[in-house]
Each structure stands twice: as structure tokens, then as C-alpha cells.
Amino acid sequence: MPADIKYLTIEDVSEMLQVTRTTIYNFKKRGMPFIKLGKTIRFDQDEVIDWIKANNERTVKQEE
């Protein structure tokens, strides 16, 4: 596993995206990729960014 992968907590992702923790839980339910290590949930920073971009594009296309 590459050493440059950054795993984020829910708080980290919330702060990064400037949204509430509840929004992150909702994104997780909608398919935002995450890793579960025991009882701990972590997010790969690059996967989160890619998921946000892909979902933002889908939202824009649906509105057109």
C-alpha cells in the first residue's frame, strides 16, 4: 500500500468539505467510499474528492 494515501476521519472530511457530520453520514449512505477498520470508519482522501466530483457532475447533468 502506498505511503502517500491519507485516511481521514468523519471530522476530517466534514472540515475538508465544510459540511456537517450528518451530511458526511448521508454521503456515505449514498455511496461515498469508506473503509471500516473494526468499529472505526476512515475515508481515502483521493477517493472522497473523486466521488464528490463525480456526484457533482451527475447532479448538474440531471438539472439540465
How would you portray this structure in words?
The chain is α+β, with helices and mostly antiparallel strands and 64 residues long. The protein has a single domain, classed as Arc Repressor Mutant, subunit A, CATH 1.10.10. The protein is 56% helix and 16% strand. It has helices spanning 10-17, 21-29, 45-63; strands spanning 7-8, 35-37, 40-44. A three-stranded antiparallel sheet has the order 1-3-2. Helix 1 (10-17) crosses helix 2 (21-29). The longest helix has 19 residues, at 45-63. 8% of the residues are buried. Mean pLDDT is 85; it is low at 59-64.
State the separation between the terminal residues, measured CA to CA. Answer: 40 Å
Gyration radius, to the nearest Å? Answer: 12 Å
Count of strand segments: 3
Bin the strand percentage: 15-25%
Can you list the strand order of the major beta sheet? 1-3-2
- SSE order in H/E notation? EHHEEH
Structural class: alpha+beta
General form: globular
CATH class: Mainly Alpha
* CATH topology-level fold name: Arc Repressor Mutant, subunit A
What is the average per-residue confidence, as pLDDT, rounded to a whole number?
Answer: 85
Pick out the low-confidence regions: 59-64
Q: Residue share in helices?
A: 55-70%
Notable traits:
single chain; 64 residues; alpha+beta; Arc Repressor Mutant, subunit A; 3 helices; 3 strands; disordered C terminus
Q: Which SSEs are present, and which pair or pack?
A:
Elements: E1 7-8, H1 10-17, H2 21-29, E2 35-37, E3 40-44, H3 45-63
Antiparallel strand pairs: 1-3, 2-3
Helix pairs in contact: 1-2
